[in-house]
Amino acid sequence: MTDQSPTRTAEAAPIRLEVEADGVAVLTLTRSAQRNALSLGMMTAIEAALEQIAADAAARVVVLRAEGPAFCAGHDLKEMRASPDRASYEALFAQCSRMMTRIVRLPKPVIAEVSGIATAAGCQLVASCDLAVAATTARFATPGVNLGLFCSTPMVALSRAVGRKHAMEMLLLGQMADAETAYRFGLVNRVVAPEELSDTVMGMARIIASKSPLTLKIGKEAFYAQVEMPLDDAYAYASRVMTENMMARDAEEGIDAFINKRQPVWQGC
């Protein structure tokens, strides 16, 4: 991207991507009439947007939000039933898993801004993000069990975001959880009034965007790598990461700036 205007916008239905001048990339789901259900087209568009964000040095943090009363109602069930064969289902769930993994492996933090319902794969989408902020009006569920279809792929992200007992409660009961319950379970970081949601999320995003992009990349990658390791292996790995990080120019700049009581100037290297 070379456009230097304050805000650069690239539209590709069913999403909208805007990269703000302060380094915040806002990715908006725009299938509000379909409750932002994850159609094949939407998942393809999200993947493409994430690739674009990954390659854009100006984008340092991502805010994922949605238009309409629903954040994301999960998979598009009508689309799924239109091709009721094994190959279609395998391709669909493989694409969804690839998209969710892309969020985790994106070298930039992703914040979910949740103002409505997030159910099934929509709840999975929230759980896959690095941070999540919910309005008091938000609701969360993995209701597949009610339809005879256990939320097995949402379970992967959910069980890594919340405790096992809480994850199983959501998966087995299939009931809606309010925002305060989601906060208590650890699915979201904060719960705020609807009118405060956007400002809260953008405030967090701008704080993150002010950090060294190299440090953010190193930190996010290291977090997800070490959390799956045994304790001794995790410390050995993290020690190697810290050593490499200390050799970076941004680490030298940050420490020197702290010692000399000035603002650091990040170079991303």
From TrEMBL:
<dbReference type="InterPro" id="IPR001753">
    <property type="entry name" value="Enoyl-CoA_hydra/iso"/>
</dbReference>
<dbReference type="Pfam" id="PF00378">
    <property type="entry name" value="ECH_1"/>
</dbReference>
<keyword id="KW-0276">Fatty acid metabolism</keyword>
<dbReference type="InterPro" id="IPR029045">
    <property type="entry name" value="ClpP/crotonase-like_dom_sf"/>
</dbReference>
<dbReference type="InterPro" id="IPR014748">
    <property type="entry name" value="Enoyl-CoA_hydra_C"/>
</dbReference>
<keyword id="KW-0443">Lipid metabolism</keyword>
<dbReference type="GO" id="GO:0006631">
    <property type="term" value="P:fatty acid metabolic process"/>
</dbReference>
<keyword id="KW-0809">Transit peptide</keyword>
<comment type="function">
    <text>May play a role in fatty acid biosynthesis and insulin sensitivity.</text>
</comment>
<protein>
    <recommendedName>
        <fullName>Enoyl-CoA hydratase domain-containing protein 3, mitochondrial</fullName>
    </recommendedName>
</protein>
<dbReference type="InterPro" id="IPR052377">
    <property type="entry name" value="Mitochondrial_ECH-domain"/>
</dbReference>
<comment type="similarity">
    <text>Belongs to the enoyl-CoA hydratase/isomerase family.</text>
</comment>
<dbReference type="GO" id="GO:0016836">
    <property type="term" value="F:hydro-lyase activity"/>
</dbReference>
